[in-house]
Design a protein that fits this description.
- The protein is α+β, with helices and mostly antiparallel strands and 311 residues long.
- It folds into 2 domains: 15-184, Regulatory protein AraC (Jelly Rolls); 191-299, Orthogonal Bundle (Arc Repressor Mutant, subunit A), CATH 1.10.10.
- It contains 13 helices and 9 strands.
- This is Helix-turn-helix domain-containing protein.
- It holds the Pfam family AraC_binding.
- InterPro entries: AraC-bd, Cupin_HpaA-like_N, Homeodomain-like_sf, HTH-like, HTH_AraC, RmlC-like_jellyroll.
- Residues 197-295 form the HTH araC/xylS-type domain.
Length: 311
């Protein structure tokens, strides 16, 4: 696909959504049916600027479009879709399985832990019917789904451990079975994508300092106007919006998973005063930090009162 047409591919947070990442977690887990049935089982080609998908298909079939190639998967399989990879699916209505979406900070953390053995930066798929890892992968996905839906003490740590185990299993699978990406070849990254990756890495390293876009653009070696245009073309958001989204995600995480005061959260994220942080947070979520924390605590408390229906 020519580079000019690639920029016209829709960019979503989760498919069909253009709003902020919907959870304070660095991952999102749902059954494939939950979203795809809303779209008549057809997820049209699109991409994500800062998300990585791991799909586990336990039953049913899927017609997979992945970086310009089409594949018909008829049995149990796993699919990895890295950030910026163009992908689409047509699922059979009897499909059973899950899609786990990783926010870029978590995906980058896992990639750094596993190094070049990580599967998270390669668009790929793995048939599972002929391997002895299918049951282990299915178990890990089920555990991730259950832990994600039932908040409990230590949830964040356990989710990270489970997703790390899953990525290790997928990496071993890729080494054992051979890579579809090797057969079809990765699309060569152009300068624009390289600059975006540099900018995302700088955001992750410095977002707590709230640097100016001009400062970050200078480190990349482009003008702030060019960086802003590039971000809008490839992600659908401005350079400042990408920085603010990372700040907002971390604010949600700290309000949900720590006992830090509002002032402490504000200071840790580089705001000059709590009132400014509160205005920023409310403008982006429609809730004050205190209201958001109260809603999260109530949600966790109510989930503990509901017996686990799986047992």
């Amino acid at each position: 696909m020519p580079a000019s047409s690639a920029t016209s591919v829709p960019v979503f947070k989760l498919y069909g959504e253009t709003q902020h990442w919907p959870t304070p977690d660095l991952l999102h887990c749902e059954s494939i049916a939950e979203r795809s049935q809303l779209h008549d089982w057809h997820i049209r080609p699109h991409r994500h600027a800062d998300l990585v998908h791991i799909l586990f298909i336990a039953q049913g079939s899927v017609e997979l479009a992945l970086e310009g190639t089409n594949h018909q998967l008829q049995s149990a399989s796993a699919i990895v879709v890295p950030a910026m990879a163009i992908h689409g699916f047509i699922f059979s209505p009897d499909v059973q399985g899950h899609i786990i979406t990783l926010a870029k900070p978590l995906a980058d953390h896992l990639h750094a832990l596993l190094g070049e053995n990580s599967t998270l930066k390669k668009a790929d798929f793995y048939p599972l019917s002929q391997t002895n890892r299918a049951e282990r992968i299915a178990t890990l996905v089920t555990q991730i789904d259950q832990e994600y839906r039932q908040p409990a003490p230590g949830r964040h740590s356990l989710l990270e451990a489970l997703i790390q185990a899953l990525v290790v299993e997928l990496s071993r699978l890729g080494a054992h079975t051979g890579s579809a990406a090797k057969r079809y070849g990765p699309r060569q990254r152009d300068k624009g994508r390289q600059h975006l990756e540099q900018y995302q890495a700088l955001i992750e390293a410095h977002y707590r300092e709230q640097p100016s876009i001009e400062q970050l653009a200078e480190q990349i070696g482009v003008s702030s106007a060019h960086l802003n245009l590039l971000c809008r073309q490839l992600t659908g958001r401005s350079a400042l919006q990408l920085l603010h989204e990372r700040l907002l995600l971390e604010a949600k995480r700290q309000l949900t998973y720590t006992n830090m005061t509002i002032g402490q959260v504000s200071d840790s994220l580089g705001f000059s005063e709590p009132a400014y942080f509160t205005r920023f947070f409310k403008r982006n979520t429609k809730f004050s930090p205190r209201e958001f924390r109260s809603r999260q605590n109530n949600s966790i408390a109510s989930s503990k009162e509901v017996p686990d229906q799986a047992n």
